[in-house]
## 1
Amino acid sequence: MSPDSKRAIGMPFAYSIANVSNLVSSQLYPTQQGPRYVQGNAVSAGLTVVAGFLYGSCWFLLKRRNAKKAKLLADGATTNGLEGDQSLETMYIL
């Protein structure tokens, strides 16, 4: 993440969301449903599919941004008027 102000907010926010799983897991896997835990495993599988879709969407978005930046650079542009991770100086590693 760039610039530093985005990183200062984004990383702790992501860590906070990740820690919510500790609270949710006790509700998804109650002992009465063991040992198969159909409800918990179904929710986990569904969220894995959602995460895969979001990953693919981000990958295509960043690939498109890289293509736009590469086209501007190929046309001889030195700047696009944007700062941080959207400037021409920054390319996304995919």
## 2
Amino acid sequence: MAETMHSEDWPKQMRKGFAELCVLIILHDKEDYGYSILSQMRKVDALAFSESTLYPMLAKMTEQEFLTVREGPSDRGKTRRYYAMTTKARARLAELMVYWESLRDGIDGLAADRKL
């Protein structure tokens, strides 16, 4: 028997699906640390998610060689992990942006055709 997604679950699943794209967009111009990335995403309610989602994703993206990590000081004295995009990540971002634009345009077109 196939599981059905509860109506409350779909926004969470969509956020997870777009998380990698959002992280790469945030890191496009400069390196940043995890909590700052999380804070930037939380400024947009629809993109807000927890540390338990972000940090494993950053570790996976590092393992996949999309990100490099360096340790550096913070204003609180504790060491922070700073993440930066690799060349491989820049290519991935370009691919994801093409897909995003196609998806967005397709959904907009479907809605416009039906005057939604």
## 3
Amino acid sequence: MSQDESYRGGVNQKRRNPEEIVADILRSTERSISKTRIMYKAALNYKQLNKYLEILTKEGLLLHDPRSGRYRSSEKGTLYVERFEEFVRTREVITEKSKALRKLFSNGRKVTEVEVEE
């Protein structure tokens, strides 16, 4: 298991960065949803959930209805998810192009970081 992976929920999964967690929360709140449902859908514990809900509400990415206690993504939150998904697609393209360049450079052999720096 690499340093970016952890064992969670019986499945090897990549450890998420804060931007991915925010996107997961906002995706789960496209419709009005309870705190408990967000916690399960975004795979967070209660302490993490409360921290993110506070930040996202304060930043205007998430709307909270105090009467029902439910949350839903704002327009700004929806825009965040769209931009985040665009970023992920771009990152994947760059990663693939980088692999192709390394393959061309190395003439089929694996190039180490040390060789590239020399």
